[in-house]
């Protein structure tokens, strides 16, 4: 980097530059910043017209965005707030140090909160408004690694006991503990948003802010000035999700959204941009995306120095250093700062001549100065027309001194020695003597102390405590039998796909007097694929600005209708963004007290496989709603090939504990699952959500064969028993999704050609069957003295004779994982391997899941059992036209 300082480009005289600057100053003084900006804009245009090639830069100088003269007065008691903050710092540190004394390596983070304390405290004391009866409240996404500080504050507020703090990261202790990071699943009365998987919360927050507008525009909640505050790390911004949706936020003019990026210039291993400037990089990205960017770089101590610097030398020098140099400077002595920072130019040295080394060392960064942070927050909440990002410069591990302040190891620092503890205590004025302090006790002043009184009063004036999660929505009342009845009746021979059947249900649900308004259809640019375009016109596509153009297809019945009160969230090609909308809608029962019911339909391959971590976060957040994996099934989606054909998602859905995953074959099965899902989630208030795969293969939908609702929901039921139950050769065939039809064809072939009488079962959910099995085993293990329970699968197959064969459009592991509860050996067919661009018949031959292979597997099982001759098997292979030397689909 060029360290030479010159303010005289191309020999321009100082005086000339000075004249230009002075005349701008005078315009500023007499006519204000808008006129000054207008003049500069005109000058830029004029320069361009005259062939002056102005280099593009989205950056402003390396200085505070808000000048001192526009800085509002700090409304709080700064000294008292500093004392409260110091106590929180101490308790946050104590929590981590104590936890690691009790159990070595239990972990926890000190340095993240240490750097962010002022950013949070200014928010808590002056900005974050709680949810009340009258006001919906602000929404705050806390940086996951700062959680010790948030707990420590709740301790001072009297919301968390010392016992809870003692059990930080030891949640299984009697009386419970505190989760390492924000997890609504584990602390449902406290945390609202899981943020610790980096990059998820910035994207979720953008869609949350947009969903708030959606609710307002659709008249479902009053328009308010509630804000969505999102705290993130500068290192976190390297996650593609962090910045991936920032243009949506500006396009939608989300001035209800505020990002606060804690720019301590460090991540876990070292500097975020040792050789560059992360703040300038972020500024240009956000300014380029048309956000309101507020830089808070320098504390108030710097103000007089800037004032003395009439030549702009200081700000130029500040722009020259790379972050690696800055990291070194902040932990160096005043003498070092004088020599290495100011020493680059005698004129700079002169600026700080009157200052002692000690006062140079004490020059604070902006993110540690409440006055600067307050000014930035105030400007952010007052700003109209675009989202705001605050880039606040801080020091990682602020206050830890030798124990880690600004050091590369600071992120992992969990222990302090006695000297370090005493130093920290003294620096922040914690009233503990030398002896007590090394025990690192939690410290809370008396209830009637000025600190606690002040802290309580501040929160009271902001409506109560934050974070706090509560459920304010009322349960739905209706059972919706009428709504779903028609779908139990079949399609009268008409061939429809399960996707079409689902869209029919969706259309009907949208008209329902109770739930119609609550439905939120979400689709990432795939509505036509699913035959949902008819909903465009009837439900409308949500657009915050309505429709400013006449759509090209306006004369058609199904035209592309955008509307301010449109109901469909047509998100464009972003499964991550759509999932974030799903989460916002699926948690509105808590966040807003509104029971919105999201139906997110997407290409099934791009769900669990692509955005699994968002789904995990949704589960943690107790999100409710329905995810529909469209065009599902490795062999059912023909033509599309390796990247699109999904035989994985039902396996990838297994780990999500509260997700119910179904692979239904028929319309009535879907109807039963959705109706029951609405009941469980929105009437009974269960914290579950659904994954349902729907296919695009058309076939006649049968009517529901008797009362099989329980079987559908629990995972399997006998769909079509064998006609000749007295036959000598018997089999049980299990089919799922579109492959159920192959199973039914195999049933026929087996009966007519080989004299095998087979029952056909529809397996709607291997996951449900598996969970039932492991839970039953567990109960039996823990209750050996009681009558053993029997898994659902075992019970169901008690009177089911013959060999067992399962086939699905997913990996063979699904049926295999429940086979241990079956009465006999199971042969499993499935679609392990890469997909192919082909038609359905060829694909099912390739993956060996068609009726021929199901027939063969059945005969083979009978042969292994000694029930049929080898010759029968050989002939069958020949008759069925099976190539025994075909490539192995699993690895080809
Ligand atoms: C997706 C993901 N990857 C990695 C991590 C592990 N991790 C936790 S904190 C951290 C560094 C955080 O740095 P930064 O975002 O700058 O936050 P700071 O603590 O400096 O405020 C990392 C890599 C994580 N939590 N999530
Ligand atoms: Mg950082």
Commentary on this structure:
The chain is of the alpha/beta class. It contains 36 helices and 20 strands. Helix 28 (667-683) links the parallel strand 13 and strand 14. Helix 3 (78-102) packs across helix 5, helix 4 packs across helix 5 and helix 30 crosses helix 35 (851-864). The model is unreliable at 1-7 (pLDDT under 50). Bound molecules: thiamine diphosphate and magnesium ion. Thiamine diphosphate binds at residues 112, 115, 145, 196-199, 233-236, 262, 264, 266-268, 272, 396, 411.
Could you name the key traits of this structure?
alpha/beta, 5-stranded parallel beta sheet, 36 helices, 40% helix, 10% strand, binds thiamine diphosphate, binds magnesium ion
Query: Count of DSSP helices?
Result: 36
Structural class: alpha/beta
Tell me the helix content. 40-55%
Strand content: 5-15%
Q: N-to-C terminal Cα separation, in Å?
A: 53 Å
Largest sheet: 6 strands, parallel
Radius of gyration: 33 Å
Shape: elongated
Q: Which strand order do you get reading across the main beta sheet?
A: 10-7-11-12-14-13
């Amino acid at each position: 980097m060029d360290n030479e300082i010159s303010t005289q480009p191309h020999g321009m005289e100082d005086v000339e530059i000075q004249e230009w600057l002075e005349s701008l100053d005078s315009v500023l003084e007499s006519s204000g910043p808008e006129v000054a900006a207008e003049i500069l804009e005109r000058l830029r245009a004029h320069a361009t017209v005259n062939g002056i090639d102005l280099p593009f830069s989205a950056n402003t100088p390396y200085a505070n965005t808000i000048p001192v003269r526009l800085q509002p007065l700090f409304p709080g008691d700064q000294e008292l707030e500093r004392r409260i903050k110091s106590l929180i710092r101490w308790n946050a540190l104590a929590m981590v140090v104590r936890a690691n004394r009790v159990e070595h390596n239990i972990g926890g983070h000190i340095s993240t909160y240490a750097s962010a304390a002022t950013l949070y405290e200014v928010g808590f004391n002056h900005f974050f408004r709680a949810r009340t009866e009258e006001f919906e409240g602000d929404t705050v996404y806390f940086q996951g690694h700062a959680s010790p500080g948030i707990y420590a504050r709740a301790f001072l507020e009297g919301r968390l006991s010392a016992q809870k703090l003692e059990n930080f990261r030891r949640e299984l202790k009697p009386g419970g503990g505190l989760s390492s990071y924000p997890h609504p699943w584990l602390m449902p009365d406290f945390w609202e948003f899981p943020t610790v998987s980096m990059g998820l919360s910035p994207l979720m927050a953008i869609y949350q802010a947009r969903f708030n507008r959606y609710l307002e525009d659709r008249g479902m909640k009053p328009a308010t000035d509630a804000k969505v505050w999102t705290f993130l790390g500068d290192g976190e911004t390297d996650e593609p999700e962090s910045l991936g949706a920032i243009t949506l936020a500006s396009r939608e003019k989300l001035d209800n959204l505020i990002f606060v990026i804690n720019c301590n210039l460090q991540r876990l291993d070292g500097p975020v941009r040792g050789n560059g400037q992360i703040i300038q990089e972020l500024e240009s990205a956000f300014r380029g995306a048309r956000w309101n960017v507020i830089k808070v770089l320098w504390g108030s101590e710097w103000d007089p120095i800037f004032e003395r610097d009439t030549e702009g030398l200081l700000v130029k020098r500040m722009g020259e250093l790379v972050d690696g140099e800055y990291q070194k400077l902040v932990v160096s002595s005043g003498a070092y700062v004088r020599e290495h920072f100011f020493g680059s130019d005698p004129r700079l040295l002169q600026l700080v001549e009157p200052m002692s080394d000690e006062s140079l060392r004490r020059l604070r960064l902006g993110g540690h100065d409440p006055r600067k942070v307050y000014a930035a927050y105030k400007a952010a909440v007052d700003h109209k027309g675009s989202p705001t990002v605050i880039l606040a410069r801080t020091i990682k591990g602020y206050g830890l001194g030798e124990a880690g302040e600004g050091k590369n190891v600071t992120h992992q620092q969990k222990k302090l020695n006695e000297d370090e503890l005493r130093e920290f205590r003294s620096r922040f004025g914690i009233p503990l003597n030398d002896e007590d302090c090394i025990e690192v006790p939690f410290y809370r002043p008396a209830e009637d102390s000025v600190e606690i009184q002040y802290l309580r009063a501040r929160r009271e004036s902001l409506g109560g405590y934050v974070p706090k999660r509560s459920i304010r929505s009322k349960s739905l009342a209706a059972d919706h039998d009428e709504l779903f009845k028609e779908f139990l009746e079949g399609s009268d021979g008409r061939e429809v796909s399960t996707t079409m059947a689902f869209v029919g249900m969706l259309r009907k649900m949208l008209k329902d007097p109770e739930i119609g308004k609550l439905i939120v259809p979400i689709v990432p640019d795939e509505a036509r694929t699913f035959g949902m375009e008819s909903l465009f016109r009837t439900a409308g596509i949500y657009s915050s600005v309505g429709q400013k153009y006449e759509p090209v297809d306006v004369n058609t019945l199904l035209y592309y209708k955008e509307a301010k009160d449109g109901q469909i969230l047509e998100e464009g090609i972003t499964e991550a963004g759509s999932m974030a909308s799903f989460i916002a809608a699926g948690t509105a029962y808590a966040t807003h007290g509104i029971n919105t019911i999201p139906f997110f339909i997407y290409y099934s391959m791009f769900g669990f496989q692509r955005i699994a971590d968002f789904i995990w976060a949704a589960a943690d957040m107790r999100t409710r709603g329905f995810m529909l994996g469209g065009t599902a099934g490795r062999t059912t989606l023909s033509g599309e090939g390796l990247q699109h054909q999904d035989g994985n998602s039902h396996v990838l859905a297994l780990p999500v504990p509260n997700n119910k995953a179904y692979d239904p074959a028929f319309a009535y099965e879907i109807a039963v699952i959705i109706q029951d899902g609405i009941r469980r989630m929105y009437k009974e208030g269960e914290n579950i959500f659904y994954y349902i795969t729907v296919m695009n293969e058309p076939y006649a939908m049968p009517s529901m064969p008797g009362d099989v609702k329980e079987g559908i929901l629990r995972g399997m039921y006998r769909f079509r028993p064998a006609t000749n139950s007295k036959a000598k050769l018997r089999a049980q065939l299990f089919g799922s999704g579109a492959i159920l039809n192959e199973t039914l064809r195999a049933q026929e072939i087996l009966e007519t050609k080989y004299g095998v009488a087979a029952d056909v079962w529809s397996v709607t959910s291997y996951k449900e069957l598996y969970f039932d099995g492991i839970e039953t085993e567990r109960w039996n293990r823990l209750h050996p003295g009681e009558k053993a329970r029997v898994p659902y699968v075992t019970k169901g197959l008690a009177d089911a004779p013959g060999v067992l064969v399962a086939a699905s459009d997913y990996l063979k592991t699904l049926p295999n994982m429940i086979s241990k509860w079956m009465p006999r050996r199971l042969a499993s067919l499935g679609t392990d391997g890469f997909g192919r661009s082909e038609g359905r018949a060829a694909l099912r031959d390739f993956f060996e899941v068609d009726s021929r292979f199901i027939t063969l597997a059945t005969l083979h099982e009978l042969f292994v059992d000694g029930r049929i001759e080898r010759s029968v098997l050989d002939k069958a292979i020949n008759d069925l036209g099976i190539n025994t030397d075909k490539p192995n689909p699993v690895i080809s």
